[in-house]
Amino acid sequence: MAKTNVDMLNGPLGRKILWFAIPIALSSIFQQLFNLTDIAVVGQFAGDKALAAVGANTFVINLLINLFVGISVGANVVVANSIGERSYRSVTRSVHTSVMVSFFSGIFLSFVGVFFARPILSAISTPSDILDDAVLYLQIYFAGMPFAMVYNFIAAILRGKGDTKRPLYVLMVAGAINVVLNLILVAGFGLGVSGVAIATVFANAISGVTLFYFLLHEVGPFKLEFWKLRITPLFLSRIMRVGLPSGLRGVVFSFSNVCLQSAINSLGSLTVAASAAALNYEFVVYYWLSSFSQACITFVGQNYGAKNLERCRRTVRWTLLLGCSSTIVLSALCCICAKPLLSVFTSNQEIIEIGSIRMYVVVGLLAINVFLDVFSGALSGMGKSLPPALTCMAGVCGIRILWVIFVFPRYKSFASLMVVYPISWILTISVIMGIYFYNVRRTKF
Q1: 3-state secondary structure 266-318
Q2: Three-class SS of residue 423?
Q3: DSSP 345
Q4: What is the DSSP letter of 221?
Q5: By residue range, what is the domain housing residue 152?
Q6: Mean pLDDT, rounded, of the chain
Q7: Count of CB atoms situated within 10 Å of the CB of 347
Q8: What is the pLDDT of residue 4?
Q9: Secondary structure class of 359 (helix, strand, coil)
Q10: What's the distance, CA 358 to chain centroid?
C-alpha cells in the first residue's frame, strides 16, 4: 500500500483517524479560503457593497452544488466497501463511473448557474443595490464548475483508499494562486467581484486538472484509463443509493439556509455583509469537525465491507472524542478573537458588532454538531444514508424553515435568526443516535 494511504483495517485507530482527518479538514479549509479571500479582498478594495454581493451568493452556491458533493460521498463509500471486500474489479468500475458522473454534474451546474443566476438571486430577496454584482459573481463562478466537480469526486475516490494528503497539497497550491490573483485582479486592475470570481475559477481549474492527472498515473485498480470511462449502471446505482440521500440532505440543508439568508437579506446590506464575514469562520470550524465525520464514513465503510462491526463501533467512539474535544477548542478561540477576526474583512464597526452575534451563538456552539455529523457518517459508511438524511431534513431543516416563517416575523432581529441553529441541532441529535444504535444491533454478518 502506498505511503499516502492509511491502513484502516488493521492497527490502533486513534492516531490513524486523526492523521486521516487533518488533511481533509485542511483541504476543506483551503477550499473555503477561496471564498474567504474573495470576500476579504473585495471588502478591503471594492467596498462594503461588493463584500455583500459576494457574501449573498454563499448559500446559493451551496444549495446548487451540495446534491453532487453528496453524491461524491457515495463514491467514497462504494470504493471503501470494495476495498474492505477486496473486490478490486469493483474499485476500478467505481472509479471510472464516478469520474464520468463528475463531468456531467459539472456541465449541468454550469448551465444552471450561468442562465438562472438572476432569477435565483431575485427569489431570495437579494438587495437591489447589490443584485447586479451578485449575479455577475455567480455566473462567472459557475462557469468553472466542471473543474470543481472533478476535484470533489476524485478527492472522494482518493479518500476511499485512505489518501487524504494529495488533495490537500493540490489545494494549498491552488489556494495560494487564488490569493495572488485576487490581489492582482481586484487591487491592481480594479475588476471588483468579477476579478475574485475569475481567480476562483482559475484555482478550481488547477485543482481539478491536477487530481485528474494523478488518477491517470495511479497504479492498480485506481488507475484511470480513457477507454474505460463509462457509467456502469450497477455501480452508478450503488453510488446513488448512498450518495443521493446525502446529496438531498445537503440540498435541503442549504435550502433552509437560503430561507435564513432571505430573512437576513431583509435586514439590509450591512447585516448581509456582517453575516457573510462571520460565516467564513463558521465554515472553517465546521469543516474541521466535518473532517471527523468524513473519517468515520471511510473507516466504517472499509471495516463494514470487511465485516468487522466491532472496529466500526470503535471508529465512532474515536471520531466523537477527537472531533468534539478539538472543535470545542477551535470554537472558543474564534469567540475570544471574534472582533479582531471580523476586522480582517471590514473596518465598519457596525458590521463587526453584528457579525459578532453569529460568532458567539453559532460558531461558539458548533461542537454540538459533531454528534450529528459523526452518527450520520457512520450510517452512511454502513450504506444506510437514507434514514439520517430524512431525519435531518425533517429535524434540522424543518425547524429552521418553520422558525423563519413563524418566529422571525415576531422577533425581527439577527440574533433571533442565529439561535435557531443550536436549537435545530439539539432536537435532531437524539433521533440520529437512536437510528444508529438500532442499526448496529440489527447488523448480522
Answers
A1: CCCHHHHHHHHHHHHHHHHHHHHHHHHHHHHHHHHHHHHHCCCHHHHHHHHHH
A2: helix
A3: T
A4: G
A5: 14-442
A6: 90
A7: 10
A8: 56
A9: helix
A10: 19
What angle do the packed helices 165-182 and 193-216 form, to 10 degrees?
150
Determine the pLDDT at residue 157: 93
Residue 340, classed as helix, strand or coil, is helix
Q: What is the DSSP letter of 100?
A: H
Retrieve residue 59's grid coordinates.
Answer: 448559500
Neighbours of 315 (CB within 10 A): 29
Q: Looking at the domain assignment, is residue 7 inside a domain? A: no
CA 101 vs. chain centroid, Å, equals 18
Lowest mean pLDDT among 48-62, 68-82, 211-225, 258-272: 48-62
Q: What percent of the chain has pLDDT over 90?
A: 61
CA distance 368 to 71: 25
What residues have CB less than 8 Å from 121, skipping those under 6 apart?
A: 56, 57, 60, 131, 134, 135, 138
> Is residue 271 exposed (0-12), middle (13-18) or buried (19+ Cβ within 10 Å)?
buried
137-195 pLDDT per residue, tens: 999 999 999 999 999 999 999 999 889 999 999 988 988 888 899 889 988 888 888 99
Q: How far apart, in whole angstroms, are the C-alpha atoms of residue 296 and residue 21?
A: 9
In a domain, 132, yes or no: yes
Measured between alpha carbons, how far is 326 from 59 in angstroms, rounded to an integer?
26
Place of cell 485576487: 182
Can you spell out the DSSP letters for 370-419? HHHHHHHHHHHHTT--HHHHHHHIIIIIHHHHHIIIIITTTS-SHHHHHT
**290: in domain:** yes
| Residues 445 and 307 sit within 8 Å (Cβ to Cβ) | yes
Residues near 430 by beta carbon (within 8 Å), at least 6 away in sequence? none
Residue 3 lies in a domain: no
CA 60 remoteness from chain centre = 13
- Number of structural domains found in the chain: 1
CA pair distance 371, 328, nearest whole angstrom: 13
Q: For the chain, how far is it from start to end, CA to CA, in angstroms?
A: 27
